[in-house]
Amino acid sequence: MGYGWMLGMLLLLPQDAGADGFAIQHNGAGVAAVKRADYADALLGAPLIDDDKVQRLAGEVGKKVYQKPVNATIDDSGRIVPERTGWRLDSQAFVTRFYERYYAQDGAALEVPRLAVYANVDSELLAHIRVRQIGYYVTYFNANNANRFHNITLAAKAINNYVVMPGETFSFNRVVGMRTVGKGYRRAPVIVRGEFSEGIGGGICQISSTLFNAADRAGLEIVERYSHSRRVPYVPEGRDATVNWGGPDFRFANRYNQPILIRAAALPGQMVITLFSSDVVNYKPRHVPSASKLLPEEIDLDVNVQA
Fold first, then answer.
1. Residue 108: CATH number of its domain
2. For residue range 138-180, what is the model confidence (pLDDT) as tens digits?
């Protein structure tokens, strides 16, 4: 309790009996109400502050005022949507102000001190890395399978505009997250132990497989990839990448000198993924066979597999 003791003894003043507390505000709105008695730590009759309680309060206030930054993105029209700066609690300044308010007699509110949290991807970076196409792949599916199309669209949005920094490893499962009903995913055919079945998020592996081929074509380092237990109809044999939350993942590493921008779009009957970077990227493309533009018989018959 060192800080509370020292500052308490330095700032100890006669208390106004009517001023039993003060408000904590953020942008003029109430965040918390402080009663002085709740934070007192009596020692030898001196009204000192319990530092542990102040730290817990700082943690609670920090959760309430935190605003996550939003990265810049590219919209469907190709225009850059600017980033938005986030905010977090300035914990050190908060504690200092708390002590000042605690021993003050004016009853004024404590306005929460904040620090800016900047987006990882800003408009300038996006403009820099959208210049050169380094990877591209298209796969095809039956758009009449509404649930499958819906799931593919959701997963495409999750990876669209994602920027992989130099030295970063992209994880499909981490970026897309758990595929649940709560997130809007629907039941669609999947492969389970070599057999077709119905599962939440069916269709997702078409995204991961399309991304794998685009990344491989761009010469990126494939860190982790697994094939389905049965051949899938939307990519050439051996060119698929199965994924499952808590199980197989698809991961690739960006060993290039520039960030990589993923652009993903689920169109009726087509899954399109394009990888971009700057005009000074040092990349070495690889040859990757294209997917057939004809819908395979399995898809025509609505015998579909996950992704």
1. 3.10.20
2. 999 888 888 889 999 999 999 999 999 999 999 999 999 998 8
